[in-house]
Here is the input.
Amino acid sequence: MSTSKPDPEKYAAPSSMLLDEETLKRSEDDARRLSRSWADSFLGHKKHHTKRWKILTVLVALSGLLVFPVLGVWFKYGFKLAYNGDYSAANSTVTGQVLGGSFSQSEAKAVDIAFSALVAPMMMAGLNYVWFTSARVSVVNELDSGRRGVPLASLVGASISSGGSYDPWLIWTLLQGRTWRLLMFGTLVLFSAIAKSAWTNVIAYAAVPVILTKENAVSLRLLSDEHLNEVSYAPGSNAINLDSFSMKKQSDLASQITGLFTGLNFLAASTTLPAQLWHDGPYDEMGYSRPNATRSSMSLADPSINHLIGVPAIFITVQCLTTQPNMITVSQMGTETTVISAFYEDAEFQAYYPGGIGEIQTSMNDVYQYAGFNLNNTEVFLGYLTSFNLSGGSIPTPYGIIEPQAQNMTPSGFSGTKEVMSYWGIRCSLFRRESVLNLTLYDSLWQVDSSGWNFTEQKQIPSLLSQWQTNLNYRAPGSTLPGIGPALARTAGVTNCSVSETELVTCDNGTDFVQLANNFLYASGEVERIVHEVTLSGEKSIDFPYDHYTLIPMRTYYDPADSPESMPSKWYNSSALVNTDVYKITYVPAVLFIGLSACLIAALLTTSMALYTARTWSAKTFRQMDPLRLVVDCGEGLQEDIRAMGVLQSLPNASLSKWAAARMKPEARNPDSDTPEARGTIGPSRRDAD
Here is the structure.
């Protein structure tokens, strides 16, 4: 760059061609006069330029000082948990922290793009303007009588730098100047680039799971309605006589109900029933609970839903008495069915099993289990029958004391050790309560919440077990007697009674009668559920409008003749808690810290350069090292070599580089003069650079 005060004589434009002496003299006078007016105007605004330089320096300093309050607020609130010993908060400096908001993915992406492509670049554009406008004034100085210049390539790199860059060649070129200010300028270029990268990446977005309440989220089909409750078929029939049942449905019913009975042979119902819901009486009453909705309709609830609100549900309990029948009889009906009848004064209970009476008459002395139902199936007698007279014994149970009864069985065709047989059991009834409850999904099964029950008044209900006593020809594995009785009693254990020589009868407590009652309760509830589920199976599906939160179509089952529109009483809508993802704006504290630190370092570098050159001619006249200034100063510095330019431009690049490097060497200067014209160098000397 030029190293002296502007001299009006120097700004006279040289003549590009030889004219006559008068014309040439007139042209030179005009050029000198024009140059003097430019120089006078420039020097007249020196005070204005000095004020501009001071304002710019203050802005540079403020750009660094503003980092400190931001850091203070961030450390106070962003690391508060970490200071209190929550080390997981320290990990959030890398993983990110949530700023807030609830956006869709496209909205969150728009916020991210807006900050990365608009806000952060505009902020960095403002900072770069302040930093580099000041730094290009401070990077080199004029009016210095030192002995060393600055490479032209370094000056070109400084003049074109108006923002940060990771370009290693640019930074290396700046450092070739080997002055402190060019070193600081190159560092400024690097940290400005780091700051821009950090600010454009500090804001991001993340999917955050939330739970939203969605009204009428799921359409459910009632599991039990008036039509299904009225369906019945004869308990002694070997056919399943439900209306319009196909062979496929009959097969489904047979396999599921057979599996239910067989499963109870190995696993007691108490392991399947819900936990004890409340204490009622002298023992903990357990209940069979289920939503009044088909599993098929519930299975099509959106996967994001794991909690349903306001679903009708039922709760069934069993209550038992220990009063014993007055009499029992065993008789065969035809060739395929035998009935065991237990007579009370107010009711008759009949237990059917598939097989002949000889199953009992000719078998070894054993304890035979059976389940007899009254006429309308609202009560059951869970009974035991065995040989010998055990009428003097007693069996304690949670329901009371059971006193076995004995009677002569010869009228029923028994003989030998079975002429006198004893019987005992419990007489039980099912009671149903209804409520509107919440359901929660556990292990892919919807279960009634154990809290919030608000029951209607209980009512006695029939059991559908009576309809499955014979029509499957079921025999429990390892049982002497066919039918469903052994399946219900197997996991409850067996009571053994003995008669001493003094005819004293003693009975142990081998039977868990509560378990027996719960097996009956569970089997009754499951049989009803299975029958209704199969009855409503095979229906077609339709798509409902997309859910507002999850964008997944909600579906339900319907029968063309039994759609929600045509029979709304069989359908209802349930609200739900929907698990969905909302997108929240986040930031990465580590990246924010890098951005703030880079801004602080850039501001300190620029401020240091400004303070160092505050009294120089470049600062007072606000002379920036920009491309135009570089061209003008190069022309002024090389004016003695103008005639050689025609030759130099034809040299190869290597030779041209050697020539440019030689302009910095002392031997290339005029020893008789230390003026800028004699030095022929471009840029400041070592003393000024240092």
